[in-house]
Write a structure and sequence with these properties.
Number of domains: 1
Strand content: under 5%
Order of helices and strands: HHHHHHHHHHHHHHH
Radius of gyration: 20 Å
Helix content: over 70%
């Protein structure tokens, strides 16, 4: 029993290491894209900073301190505010602490990368002001460091059941983050009611946030809002589309449970399998008719339910229910 509980704790730490490292990379990409967007816009930037605060869960923390949406205050909250649980500083700290708790299960290269990532951002917190050039340089550096960590994660760890938990966490988080980005950006642009060309210019920031601009252009060529939404919702080859992320999470889950497919063996397989099936048989017209914001709310609600079922199924072990995650 003690050995099984230990395995459960390892799986839990790997799952959360996956979630927090993905959350950090997502925030880095969002900040980079929207900081560059704000440099090209003369007005209305406060709406986008508010949308980012809302998307990452920092809006309440921000409004407790500040009365108005100001760029520098938003950047400080999102990047360095130790009192905001979803700031980049805190998210990277959590990723490192989860890695530390299972240091014997990950490679030395991974530990070095995640530790240096934390030291880099915590060292930047001593800076008196988030200067534009210095901030862009920091974000570029953090992107490279997160890629290095994820590269080590993929190429230096054995792809066993423990590793599958880290993949499950990463893709559950990615699904949630993509949905929140689309949701909050769509709400903001609906409120602004820009002309078509201005709206498309701003929608490009969504593609930039998902590192999807170049592949979008290769796939569609001409940029339209409808095709952007189709790409980030439903493309099954884009690593940062919702459909791809749900498929990858489902694959990791079946690898953990050793289910060869065709049926479900647990509630979590049933819930995530239904999400995957829904994305296999829906098109962007149906999503638009349902309502973009309403559909995103459904995704976020269901992914939260999947997370709860993962926790119940794998991490809350008891004498009556002991699951084995050994190779």
């Amino acid at each position: 029993m003690d050995n099984q509980i230990t395995l459960s704790r390892v799986a839990n730490s790997l799952y959360w290491m996956g979630r927090h490292s993905e959350r950090a990379e997502s925030l880095i990409r969002i900040l980079d894209a929207h900081l560059k967007l704000s440099m090209d816009l003369s007005t209305g930037t406060q709406y986008f900073w508010k949308a980012i605060l809302s998307a990452v869960g920092c809006l309440d923390s921000y409004t407790e301190k500040y009365k108005t949406i100001e760029r520098d205050n938003v950047l400080h909250t999102l990047i360095l505010d130790s009192e905001c649980s979803e700031s980049l500083l805190n998210v990277i700290w959590h990723a490192r602490e989860n890695a530390r708790s299972i240091r014997e299960r990950i490679t030395a290269e991974m530990w070095l990368d995640i530790n240096e990532l934390y030291l880099r951002i915590s060292g930047f917190s001593e800076s008196p002001k988030l200067d534009g050039d210095a901030l862009l340089e920091l974000l570029d550096d953090l992107k490279l460091r997160t890629r290095s960590f994820q590269g080590g994660w993929f190429h230096t760890m054995s792809h066993n059941k423990e590793w599958q938990f880290s993949q499950l966490g990463m893709y559950i988080e990615r699904t949630d983050q993509i949905s929140r980005i689309i949701d909050n950006f769509h709400r903001t642009l609906t409120e602004l009611k820009d002309d078509a060309s201005t709206s498309l210019f701003k929608w490009r920031a969504v593609l930039d946030s998902l590192s999807a601009t170049e592949m979008y252009q290769k796939t569609y060529g001409v940029m339209t809002v409808n095709s952007i939404l189709e790409f980030v919702f439903l493309n099954n080859e884009l690593p940062r589309s919702i459909r791809f992320s749900i498929q990858a999470a489902h694959t990791a889950l079946l690898n953990i449970t050793e289910n060869k497919g065709g049926s479900f063996q647990s509630n979590v397989e049933k819930k995530l399998g239904r999400m995957k099936a829904n994305f296999d048989f829906i098109d962007i017209k149906e999503i638009s008719q349902f309502g973009i914001e309403e559909y995103n709310e459904r995704i976020q609600s269901r992914i939260a339910e999947v997370h709860d079922l993962i926790k119940i199924t794998f991490f809350e072990l008891s004498e009556e229910k002991v699951l084995s995650y050994t190779n």
